[in-house]
């Protein structure tokens, strides 16, 4: 077992690296040439633009010494923006996402105080471990273990302390969760109620339109809704199967990049006309003039694109059996989204339409039977992924044990026994091994979720997050505990049965405390500090900037603001919740490390959300029920583990008291689910009616049909049109002619601005604010 | 273990008692004075009435010898009525209920044939049991065991036969289930679509109306729906808290019975004026003239009732926060029932209204928070009921073991060792012990379900059925297997862990085959034969007839047609499904007994449904998803048991093949649930729109408001009014004056007949038929 010194070394290393990252960030962010890396959000908002005037050097390097003195100034700045303005600025999703970290602080600050006030003295004032170590000299223990529940003698009456604490912690957690659910449900409802007119409020996504020999999909949809929603139906938009067109657009984009690259090369050195080969990956084939080649190729694809687009629109087979149906009123849409249309529940499936930018187009056409088969396949695949991934992790984990290394490679013994190396190995290796595994995972899980056939990006992210959480639970949490123990207690463990499971984990949990403390430091502290440094986008941006960027627009395309990536970040937070809840009673010494993590993460992510991340969609915090459910899961796991631990400690008369806890927790979950979850799935008619009435009074002559006409057109059609414009009128930005505003980006802007005339940088945000409220 | 002779004796006893019951029924049903016991359904329909003319003796006893010769004629008669007519006659619930027995036959006839063709030879052609019995002479085995899977030697390749059979049986079961689900879903939809105008088509039950300081509940409901469903809302009816009134009506009913009794006594012997005591239970207090006393008491209560009723209607506090809201169109009601009304999902809860006769009034006012608490309480109580009930059963089970009895009471040994007594004990006792336990159970479970706060009788029955099934599963199925084994293998068993569970059951299952065969005979065969004899209603009717009956109306009240009692009968059928599926692979010898049960039960229940049972409500087969789900549960249990059994038989390489089975079965369940279950919960708008349009074209000037005005009035108000009429105009039947038809009963008539003029017995049913189709 690791000693306090090991932990101290690991903490020092991690704190130093975190501080180094923060320092580097503090300096880099002040350099104007990094502006688009560290403040892309403001560029997307149209509030900032590239510095054009002033000296050339000043354009790249910040020479103002005073600004370096307050290089930690971003921290208070990140906290300064009030929540309502944050919602305006970055959307409700982001604001609620930050509340997860806040929830962690709300959870664990009181729990830590109470645990250190009550449990630490109870655990410390025993000498079980000292007695045991005199009996069996092999057993090592540290001061951390003296603070843990392991130090209470078997059968002691002192076990009532952790038991009562488990109750108090559970009640506190449930109370905080319930309050938070209430707040977020009302934030969501308020957000939806105060949102201004958006196409998805009027629109329902209809899937599985049955084929009809006499009518086209479009006619069929129109007739069906004219008959069954006679007073409410307005228009509909069919969905085209544009996958071929998407490929063309991708190909053209790639070619344009090459063209830009060669043009820039030519400009810098006009003496040599750049050449390239036409074959596979530019390695084989005929040598041609690069600029000429790509220009003609792009022209060719442009024409093909237009042809393909026209063909799509004419060919009835390219219309998928799905449609976006819009209604005259929000009430009509709410009714249609919540009701079953026909007696066959697998046809004419209606659901509330996602935002246009949230739609995941390729999945719209998957029929019902295929969906269930796909789900089965993914469930089986995911099972195998989760359980066979464990083998390499278990192997690496076992190596991280000093004894394991010495046994496996005896010649390393002298090196490993050097105190600092030993501490380093014990503090660093296990966390890093896990980390490498985990980097590749979210992409695979997202692919699996896409295969399952969900139709919006937000639901895809939620689905991936669920999978990732399960994976982390099995592999990081259980895997670390059991595999580690398995190599220590191999003989006693392998032939154990399932109901011994909580016991085994219960025994292993206190022993794994140091491992998880180092895990929190590496994955948590250093990971968060690395997040704010944005090393990868920094490098990629500067590479692109030097090789590809010609115009302002190119520079904007080179900018990679990224996003929160809910699907991979949220499950990780949940892992910390799990660790905190499990160790709160067992080894309270872990809790302060978590508090640092939650505090730092809150700060960093608030800064990133304000300055960096681009909002890709707005789901109005639709992910909260998942977050809530996972915290409940963690709570139940912690209770079961404690049950197992106490039953091995011969505190058996406490079992009935502990069994009641998970029962009550599950009941609480059902209760809060019934109470608040409908707010995240359903659309109350009263709210819809209110907004309709208000709108009708304010704008009695509104032409809603024109407003909705083209709201749900496949983005690739728009893109084709855009590119057409660009290739025809090269160099002129078409959107600046259409929308006279400073907003320079088209990417994921929440709503097209209706302001005429230019607005200054500072007032623009406030204008949006007024407009929305 | 029991031998073939034991089974033979048990079978003989049970077959003889079943034949005796059937014979008794064959004779009793022909006697006219039993007519109201064996054919009450026809009286309720108004097709039959008491014989009035002809000779006095003939009125009571059937002297026509020829009719006795065809005393089994009821069997073909029961099968003769075609299903559509059966639906007209007894409702869709009854018709679909019968299909559960048919499903059993469809399941098990091919399975039995296949099992005897394939598994029986495979099992028989081994000598494992003979070899084992030579090794350990204690081990007894019978020819039944030679036919079971126990006879295959450990590790034999022959285990592929049961394995492949398990696959075939599962696929067959799923296929039949899927087809059946399809048929029943379409029957339900057709039934609903072809049903004529009924109040519940237009009505939605609204619960948890929030209190408002300024408005009464009634005004609040009206305003809310006028605002949020402006084009569709028609009227509403509030719900009164009439529990006090109900008690008064009960008390008066009881007093009327006593009055009738004393009046009859006085009529028979006019010389003595009957007296009674006014105190507790008529045992203490002052002696008074009975007739005078009860007459004045009844008058008093009648007046009190009217006062109470008027008070209820005036007092705003007696109005519960619930209402039946009716809409102009079925479309409007379908929309309101399926949507969420306000942002708080615990207020203004709307659901499709049950039929007026299906409403369970006392539960309408329970608020949301109380509901969840009540559910928690019942879940905990039910858990204790299920698991602590096992102790006495286990005790009785263990006694039923001959060795157990001899050990417990050695002096009984000579008696017990008499062959016929031994067979009797082994064949009879265990089944009867269970039976006695089970008789009292459904009432308790129904009480628990009522406490949970469901609002319709049909959902209460479904809920009770679920509980009863779980109870039977744990206590009868698992309890019989494990408790029995526990007393045999006590040492090896008690310290076993949870993952050994399937193995333990797997080992015990073949040993318990004879027990379950006798169980099928006693509970199944004799139980069904007892059902048709209706001994209890027979006795009660004749007792009432001699002591209370004065008028035709009294005689009708004395009649007890009973009903299917889904809540207790369906779980029992499910137990047979479970036994059949579990033993199909293990001991196919059990299957023929099941076939006899399903065949006989189908016949008997078809007869009872046609001639006896009164339909208390019509839920349009809403219970089918439950039935389907339970058969799937049985299927999965059978697969897990087989997995456990084979793993003990060292056929370990078969495990992966068997694990796939439950996964596929669960997937099938999810698939068929998604495909067909919505048909049982939701109300497709298309169907509603069709019916609306049709009705509007046919009857453009229909006054739907008048039609719905009083549809959902608490039945006790009607009853008070009825009694008022009776007490005012004694002896005259008020309804005969209002509705001039032969229909003599008011009890649970589906819809008031609109026929004017009398119809003859034979044509009346056909008329109803025409009217509906």
TrEMBL record, chains A, B:
CC per GO annotation: DNA-directed RNA polymerase complex; plasma membrane
Principal cellular location given in the protein's record: membrane
Annotated source species: Apostasia shenzhenica
One Pfam family per UniProt: RSN1_7TM
Recorded family membership: Belongs to the CSC1 (TC 1.A.17) family.
E.C. number(s) listed in UniProt: 2.7.7.6
Keywords tagged on the record: DNA-directed RNA polymerase, Ion channel, Ion transport, Membrane, Nucleotidyltransferase, Transcription, Transferase, Transmembrane, Transmembrane helix, Transport
Membrane topology, as annotated: Multi-pass membrane protein
Top-level enzyme category: transferase
Biased composition (Polar residues): 746-757
Upper classification of the organism: Eukaryota, Viridiplantae, Streptophyta, Embryophyta, Tracheophyta
Sequence intervals crossing the membrane: 6-28, 100-122, 159-178, 376-400, 420-447, 468-487, 507-528, 575-605, 627-646, 653-671
Protein's name in the database: DNA-directed RNA polymerase III subunit RPC2
Highest taxon above the source species: Eukaryota
Cellular compartment(s): Membrane
Example of a GO MF term: calcium-activated cation channel activity
């Amino acid at each position: 077992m690791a000693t306090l010194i090991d932990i101290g070394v690991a903490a020092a290393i991690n704190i130093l690296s975190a501080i180094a990252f923060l320092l580097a960030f503090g300096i880099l962010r002040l350099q104007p040439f990094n502006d688009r890396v560290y403040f892309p959000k403001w560029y997307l908002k149209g509030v900032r633009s590239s510095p054009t005037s002033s000296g050339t050097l000043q354009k790249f390097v910040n020479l103002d010494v005073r600004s370096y003195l307050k290089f930690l100034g971003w921290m208070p700045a990140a906290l300064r923006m009030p929540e309502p303005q944050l919602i305006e600025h970055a959307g409700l999703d982001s604001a609620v996402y930050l509340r997860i970290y806040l929830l962690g602080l709300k959870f664990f600050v009181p729990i830590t105080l109470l645990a250190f006030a009550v449990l630490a003295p109870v655990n410390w004032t025993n000498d079980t471990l000292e007695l045991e170590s005199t009996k069996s000299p092999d057993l090592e223990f540290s001061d951390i273990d003296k603070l843990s529940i392991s130090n209470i003698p078997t059968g002691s009456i002192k076990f009532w302390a952790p038991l009562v604490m488990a109750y108090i912690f559970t009640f506190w957690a449930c109370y905080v969760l319930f309050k938070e659910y209430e707040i977020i449900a009302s934030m969501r409802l308020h957000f939806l109620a105060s949102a201004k007119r958006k196409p998805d409020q009027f629109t329902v996504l209809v899937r599985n339109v049955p084929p009809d020999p006499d009518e086209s999909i479009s006619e069929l949809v129109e007739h069906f809704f004219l008959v069954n929603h006679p007073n409410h139906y307005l228009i509909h938009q069919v969905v085209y199967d544009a996958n071929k067109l998407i490929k063309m657009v991708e190909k053209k984009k790639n070619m344009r990049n090459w063209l830009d690259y060669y043009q820039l090369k030519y400009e810098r050195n006009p003496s040599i006309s750049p050449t390239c080969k036409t074959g596979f990956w530019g390695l084989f084939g005929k040598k041609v003039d690069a600029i000429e080649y790509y220009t003609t190729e792009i022209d060719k694809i442009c024409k093909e694109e237009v042809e393909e687009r026209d063909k799509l629109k004419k060919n009835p087979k390219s219309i998928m059996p799905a449609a976006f149906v819009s209604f005259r009123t929000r009430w009509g849409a709410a009714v249609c989204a919540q009701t079953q249309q026909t007696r066959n529940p697998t046809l004419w499936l209606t659901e509330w339409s996602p935002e246009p930018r949230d739609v995941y187009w390729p999945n719209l056409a998957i029929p019902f039977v295929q969906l269930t088969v796909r789900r089965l396949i993914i469930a089986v695949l995911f099972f195998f992924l989760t359980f066979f991934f464990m083998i390499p992790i278990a192997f690496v984990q076992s190596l991280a044990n000093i004894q394991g290394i010495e046994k496996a490679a005896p010649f390393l013994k002298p090196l490993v026994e050097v105190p600092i190396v030993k501490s380093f190995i014990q503090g660093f290796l296990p966390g890093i091994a896990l980390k490498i595994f985990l980097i590749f995972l979210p992409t695979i899980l997202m692919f699996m979720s896409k295969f399952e056939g969900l139709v919006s990006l937000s639901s895809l992210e939620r689905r991936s997050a669920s999978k990732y959480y399960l994976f982390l639970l099995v592999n990081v949490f259980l895997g670390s505990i059991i595999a580690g123990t398995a190599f220590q207690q191999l003989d006693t463990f392998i032939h154990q049965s399932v109901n011994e499971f909580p016991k085994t984990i219960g025994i292993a949990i206190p022993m794994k405390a140091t491992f998880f403390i180092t895990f929190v430091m590496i994955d948590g502290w250093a990971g968060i500090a690395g997040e704010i440094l944005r090393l990868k986008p920094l490098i990629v941006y500067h590479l692109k900037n030097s090789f590809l960027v010609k115009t302002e627009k190119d520079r904007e395309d080179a900018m990679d603001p990224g996003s929160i990536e809910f699907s991979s970040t949220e499950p990780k937070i949940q892992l910390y919740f799990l660790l905190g809840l499990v160790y709160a009673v067992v080894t309270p010494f872990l809790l302060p490390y978590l508090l640092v993590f939650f505090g730092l993460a809150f700060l960093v992510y608030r800064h990133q959300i304000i300055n960096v991340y681009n909002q890709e969609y707005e789901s109005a915090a639709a992910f909260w029920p998942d977050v809530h459910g996972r915290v409940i899961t963690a709570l139940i796991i912690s209770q079961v583990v404690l049950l197992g631990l106490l039953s091995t400690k011969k505190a058996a008369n406490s079992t009935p008291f502990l069994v009641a806890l998970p029962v009550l927790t599950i009941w609480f979950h059902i209760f809060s689910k019934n109470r608040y979850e409908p707010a995240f799935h359903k659309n109350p008619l009263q709210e819809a009616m209110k907004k309709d009435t208000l709108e009708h009074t304010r704008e009695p002559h509104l032409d809603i049909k024109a407003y909705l006409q083209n709201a749900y057109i496949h983005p690739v059609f728009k893109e084709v049109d855009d590119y057409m414009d660009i290739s025809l009128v090269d160099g002129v930005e078409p959107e600046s002619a259409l929308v006279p505003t400073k907003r320079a980006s088209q990417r994921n802007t929440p709503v097209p601005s209706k302001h005429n005339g230019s607005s200054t940088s500072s007032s623009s945000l406030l204008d949006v604010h007024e407009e929305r409220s």
